Amino acid sequence: MFEARLEESAVLKKILDSVRDLVQEANWDCNDDGIVMQSMDSSHISLVCFMVRASSFEVYQCERNVSLGVKIDSLAKVLKCAASDDSVTLKADENEPNTMDILFESKKNDRISDFQLKLMVIDQEMLGIPESDYTSTVEMSSAEFRRIMGDLSTMGDSVTIEINKGGASFSTKGDIGSGNICLQKSASVDKPKDGVKITMVEPVKSTFSLKFLNIFAKAAALSDTVVLSMSEEYPIRIEFAIDKDVGYVRYYLAPKIEGQES
Amino acid sequence: MFEARLEESAVLKKILDSVRDLVQEANWDCNDDGIVMQSMDSSHISLVCFMVRASSFEVYQCERNVSLGVKIDSLAKVLKCAASDDSVTLKADENEPNTMDILFESKKNDRISDFQLKLMVIDQEMLGIPESDYTSTVEMSSAEFRRIMGDLSTMGDSVTIEINKGGASFSTKGDIGSGNICLQKSASVDKPKDGVKITMVEPVKSTFSLKFLNIFAKAAALSDTVVLSMSEEYPIRIEFAIDKDVGYVRYYLAPKIEGQES
Amino acid sequence: MFEARLEESAVLKKILDSVRDLVQEANWDCNDDGIVMQSMDSSHISLVCFMVRASSFEVYQCERNVSLGVKIDSLAKVLKCAASDDSVTLKADENEPNTMDILFESKKNDRISDFQLKLMVIDQEMLGIPESDYTSTVEMSSAEFRRIMGDLSTMGDSVTIEINKGGASFSTKGDIGSGNICLQKSASVDKPKDGVKITMVEPVKSTFSLKFLNIFAKAAALSDTVVLSMSEEYPIRIEFAIDKDVGYVRYYLAPKIEGQES
């Protein structure tokens, strides 16, 4: 029996919210390390993955590796039935994972809900994730990132992100004009939530679809900060770490080529 | 002259909100006891009624019984023009009730609004309400009731409600799976707002349309608690009492027969 | 170079919000006194104008009078990219005003945004504003004004506003009935925010389109109070003064003639 119990359902709700606009169904691969999902979005342009580490569960038992074929929207509907501070337990039969049992328990133990969710067989290979030694990264407030992506979308379809030693800039161009938002590197690098922290081997500048970045930015609910990792002509990686080493949600998106339409 | 004055318009606003999704027009029967409305919903499936007792009005004068044919939505529009702490006075000519005069007065008396609402002649018999000695009742938080009805609606069309000595359970089934929310009976029965109070002669279990229960649940705005009264193969009664013996809003809904579609 | 710097972008955001539902594009006339815009709404029924005085800018430099042809919606989109407490600087070339440069600076100076907005050539004559010695004015809470206009709209298409020595009244009539909201003149005239202040040579009573008054009422965000100025058979003037002599937004609307449809 696969069994995993989280103290609060809120984390799982937020993870589902951060992937459900991109992915309809995907395998959740459960093994000793924890639960991992990775999938192309349904238009096959971006890649999204998340990990929740085994150590972050109150109970985690996984005798055999198992892939659970989850319909994201259905699981999100079930999770909606939990109060944010309910505990949540996921259970499945490792040999024949046709259904997932989901149990919610209220803190005061006066409300117990159990759901059975049908699972699917999803024929999906684990993708080789395009990791690399990124030449530049910027860590910044996730709320600020979300705000900037939303603001620039009112003007253009794509954003050019530039990281250099002075800071990070985000610029766009559209029918009504053009704009550029420039964030200065913080003097003190201690509090990336309120500032901007740059790690750089060499400056980098690439252009991305604002439509996707706006979807990714919703994961700001998961984390106070976001880390953008870039290399020239390479997909950007956008990572939202989840509280206290619980895990992460990561998005990957290839840059637009000059002259190419979104 | 029929005249009834409420100290705060808020109560009447909430009563209208709790019936306007079900009833378009209905007679308000005014007599010595107070004002009563009862009506089938427009699809003739459920029954809704409310009572506001004469004693809960600041002024209540009703020389002759009179039926006021009210278009609910129109009266709700008029009530929208009152601040929640305005007093409201309803007046009508008992002999020829063609219009209702509605007067709002602000607490500081610096704003007086008077409206004339056209009344209708509604040919509607007073229905025999299917009261009985219910075999089981559960009193619980109205907010929790509303939340559960909403949550289960994401998964199914109907809910099976079961009351037994341990508590009350609400279960549904749909394309994506099935679910069951179980509320334990409270040890102390003093605070039904935070707990669940069961009164039971024998256990009961019936299935109802979630569409209607969701509409009824909006009346949670009227009262902190709700009382569900059930007997086997008998319509459920869902009652929201209004503050301090002011009155109540009650809904009645027949159970679904096995194999029947909603 | 024309240059004008406001300490907080919020004022400009609110001004744009108060005109964007009426005007799509208009000349902003900049001279020694400040910035003035006036324009008929796009249906050519009402007139809207605003003024921001030169003295209310931190920096204001205008060597030559210049008309900037602004697409209101586009400028509003750009302003959306500023935090409310960012400073905003507008710049344009007085000789060839093809674009407006807009600069936002955060209080902590860690975020600098610059936008270029394309300007238009708008062939628009400065209109003679129908000012007069109004025979009656009422100053009242702008939130109350907004609420009353909204409330009466649920019932009718037009409102009859009457000012007399006792106060101001607002009445409407529709299919479902009729209504009248009467505000008493305040005993103390010190706090028009909480009361109603009347200045009157002779009583006046005229009828106006609620559709337009509801649009004007959104400018309540700019000011705690609103002043309605009326003369018999003359357009009403509705003025929202902006904080501390910054300027104003004014609307003008002709009364409906008896028997005329809106």
UniProtKB/TrEMBL annotation, chains A, B, C:
CDD domains: PCNA. Transmembrane segments: none annotated. It comes from the Eukaryota. It is found in: Nucleus. Pfam families: PCNA_C, PCNA_N. PROSITE patterns: PCNA_1. Residues 128-256 form the Proliferating cell nuclear antigen PCNA C-terminal domain. Residues 1-124 form the Proliferating cell nuclear antigen PCNA N-terminal domain. Its main location: nucleus. GO terms for molecular function: DNA binding; DNA polymerase processivity factor activity. Keywords: DNA replication, DNA-binding, Nucleus. Gene3D superfamilies: 3.70.10.10. PANTHER family: PROLIFERATING CELL NUCLEAR ANTIGEN. This protein is an auxiliary protein of DNA polymerase delta and is involved in the control of eukaryotic DNA replication by increasing the polymerase's processivity during elongation of the leading strand. HAMAP family: DNApol_clamp_arch (MF_00317). Belongs to the PCNA family. This is DNA sliding clamp PCNA.
